[in-house]
Amino acid sequence: MRPIEVVDRLGRWSSGRGPLYVLLAARLRHLIDDGELPPGVLLPPDRALAGALAVGRTTVVAAYDLLRAEGRITRRQGSGTRVAGVPRNVEDPAPVDPIFLDSLEARDDDVLLAICAAPGDPPPQLAEAFVRIAPELSRVSDDIGYYPYGHPSLRQALADRYAARGVPTRPEQILVTNGGQQALSLLAHALVSPGDQVLVEAPTYPGALEAFREQGAVLRGLPVGLDGFEAAVRERRPAVAYVIPTYQNPTGSVMSGLARQRLASAGVPVIEDEVPGDLAFPGEPQPAPMAAYGDSVISIGSLSKSIWGGLRIGWIRATPPLINRVARRRAVHDLGGNIPTQLAAVHLLPLLDGPELHNTLKARHDHLHTQLTQALPTWEVPTVRGGQCLWARLPYGDGTSFAQTTLRHGLAILPGGGLDVTGASDAYVRFHFRARPDDLTEAVQRLAQAWTAYHPPADRVRPRPAIAI
Predict the structure, then answer these.
(1) What is the DSSP code (8-state) at residue 174?
(2) From residue 320, how far is each of 107, 271, 436 by CA, in Å?
(3) How far is the C-alpha of 357 from the C-alpha of 13, rounded, in Å?
(4) Sheet-wide strand order for 73-76
(5) Mean pLDDT of the chain
(6) In the predicted model, what is the mean pLDDT of residues 356-365?
(7) Edge-to-edge strand order for the sheet containing 112-114?
């Protein structure tokens, strides 16, 4: 490929923040991952590309070295620099399987989806909430309807809820977003520059990994709970850490209060993902939010997993300066969210503490766990105390190849490899228990049929040693 062709595809590669070689590597990485530079393509020599880009040769060499370390390119004397493809190495595995994105769209086929852990039906209280806000909307006047920070009534309601949980909060510390994913994306834009280190749990929520990768972050995985956090902070000097302390996705673990305090006092911004935290089973004590331990904690929440994904209501709780900074970015993205939906959300927040949600979660967890242990007795499927997922370990094989087998049997599951930047979760798959009991039963039946037909790759036939996570 001639240098000019690569330059045309790079676009405004140098317009971001960070060293030029990191920005160049980030743009080339996107082109490789998106298939615009397919495997086998010969890239321009160092000097030729440097001349076309009007940069020093060392910039191109350093960018190529980064991509080679990731496994995205190969460099051999005599044969040049070639695209190797999207890697699956321990530092930066391949992006989440496209089926994760497909699961967000309605499907016309008969494939059961066990990927996107969200309620399958809006609750009846949702329609009732919109009926309740109709008089309020009819009284609106002299209001253009743009609220980049979120509607004041919802910001106040969220601040009050944090205060009731032991975290004094003012409305100025709340930014309402279009779901928790937008909250993650906005924070990644605000806090991460290309080449910055970001500490994440391994495994963790794949949507967070994608948000940080979009900013060119270097992801470093630590065990669930960010064990070894202080040492990693000293060695890596990360820009931010991301953690799910309550009913962690996907393992369902709950971080102790001492561990929360330790993370909050380490001097590094910590994004606390509270989205699964509202999904406790009946009788389970609710730990204090990590934000109770210090201002370095940035909390995000959402109604997508507790009420319904179609609401697109999420939020960020942080210091007012950071809220202002993120709101400026948010205004450029979409000017603000849907106001009728935010008004309805004020009436839906009490459902988070009501018994119906938590009783339903526990019943469906128990149903799925019973079905799995009966149909697949050789699998390791620990129970959880809240959340929405079961994290199952296969006795042999790997989750990626098994997920391909289950898809042929009409079941889409999420393999663990796409959730773990260290590569240590290949033997796991994630299930959610938000579906109706009949659908959960059918899913397990298809799963058992797929397991009977499963033939793992030759290097994955032997049983794996247990991994403590």
Answers:
(1) E
(2) 42, 15, 41
(3) 47
(4) 42-43, 80-83, 73-76
(5) 88
(6) 95
(7) 112-114, 411-415, 428-432, 389-393
**Contact (Cβ atoms closer than 8 angstroms) between residue 247 and residue 276:** yes
Alpha helices in 335-454 (DSSP H): 339-348, 355-375, 399-408, 437-453
Peptide bond into 19 cis (omega under 30): no
Query: What CATH number has the domain spanning 124-352?
Result: 3.40.640.10
The CA distances from residue 338 to 106, 192, 194, 208, in Å, are 22, 27, 32, 23
pLDDT at 104: 53
Distance (Å, whole) CA 287 – CA 281: 13
Mean pLDDT for the stretch of residues 394-423? 92
Is residue 17 scored above 80 in pLDDT?
A: no
Cβ atoms 106, 115 nearer than 8 A:
no
Q: Sign of dihedral through CA atoms 339, 343, 349, 354?
A: negative
Burial class (CB in 10 A: 0-12, 13-18, 19+), 354: exposed
Q: Return the CATH number of 3-83, one of 1.20.1250.20, 1.10.10.10, 3.30.1330.60, 2.60.40.420.
A: 1.10.10.10
Q: What is the percent of the chain with per-residue pLDDT over 90, rounded to a whole number?
A: 62
- Cα separation, 137 vs 149, whole angstroms: 19
Bridge partner list, 429: 392, 415
Is 304 in contact with 314 (CB distance < 8 Å)?
A: yes
Work out the pLDDT band at 463, boundaries 50, 70, 90.
very low
The two tokens of residue 132 are: 């309740």
**199 vs 209: CA distance, rounded Å:** 10
- Sort strands 42-43 and 80-83 into parallel, antiparallel or unpaired: antiparallel
- 119: CB partners within 8 A, 6+ apart: 305, 306, 307, 308, 309, 434
The pTM assigned to this predicted structure is 0.81
* CB distance 431 to 390 below 8 Å: yes
Structure tokens at 73: 């390119």
- For the chain, domain boundaries: 3-83, 98-117+354-460, 124-352
pLDDT at 289: 92
